[in-house]
Design brief:
Strand order of the largest sheet: 5-4-3-2-1-6
Largest sheet: 6 strands, mixed
Distance between the termini: 41 Å
Structural class: alpha/beta
Radius of gyration: 16 Å
Number of strands: 6
Shape: globular
Oligomer: single chain
CATH architecture: 2-Layer Sandwich
Strand content: 15-25%
CATH superfamily: STAS domain
Number of helices: 5
Number of domains: 1
CATH topology: Transcription Regulator spoIIAA
Length: 164
C-alpha cells in the first residue's frame, strides 16, 4: 500500500488517516494543517487517527503524534484516539513510549468519508526533524539516548546553515 496521510477537520474534531509505510514525507504538511486548526474556532476537542491501514510509522511521524497529543492534552486534558492500530504499530508506539499519551480504540465506524489527501507541501527540514525527535526524546532517557546522534547531527546542520 502506498504511503499516504489524509486529513479532515469537522466541527471540533480532527480526523487523520495514515496508510502504508508512513515516513517524514507528508508530516510537515499534516502538522501545518493540524496546528492551524488548533488555532481556529471552535476549539479542537478530539483528534482521531485511523491506523487501520498503516503498516509502519517512522520516528518523525511518531514525534508528530507526540506533538499533537501534547497540544490536545494542553488544550483539553484529553488524549488522541488511535483507531485500528496493528500489532506492529502498537509495538512501535510502546517501544518509543507513545502509548501512555494516546487511547487505543476500535476502528471508528463514524470516521468521515472523503478525507483530503495531504500533499507533500513543505519538505521535512532539519528544524522540523529536530523538533519531532526532541518530542520523542522528551518521553524518556532511553529515547534521548536513541535519538542523541541524530539530534546532534541536526543541530550541527542548523548551526552550519546559520553561519553561512
Amino acid at each position: 500500500m502506498d504511503e499516504a496521510l489524509f486529513f479532515k477537520a469537522i466541527g471540533d474534531r480532527i480526523h487523520i488517516k495514515a496508510t502504508g509505510h508512513v515516513t517524514a514525507v507528508y508530516c510537515p504538511e499534516l502538522k501545518s494543517r493540524c496546528f492551524g486548526r488548533f488555532d481556529e474556532k471552535p476549539p479542537v476537542n478530539a483528534v482521531i487517527l485511523d491506523l487501520s491501514e498503516c503498516d509502519y510509522m517512522d520516528s518523525t511521524f511518531l514525534g508528530l503524534i507526540v506533538g499533537l497529543a501534547k497540544r490536545l492534552k494542553t488544550d483539553t486534558a484529553k488524549k488522541i484516539s488511535l483507531a485500528g492500530a496493528s500489532e506492529t504499530c502498537i509495538g512501535l508506539l510502546r517501544t518509543i513510549g507513545v502509548l501512555r499519551l494516546v487511547d487505543l480504540v476500535d476502528p471508528a465506524s463514524d470516521f468521515p468519508a472523503n478525507l483530503e489527501r495531504v500533499g507533500r507541501g513543505a519538505t521535512a527540514t532539519a528544524q522540523f526533524l529536530l523538533d519531532t525527535h526532541e518530542e520523542l526524546s522528551s518521553l524518556s532517557p532511553e529515547n534521548r539516548a536513541k535519538f542523541s546522534a541524530l539530534s546532534s547531527l541536526l543541530r550541527e546542520s542548523l548551526k552550519n546553515k546559520d553561519e553561512e
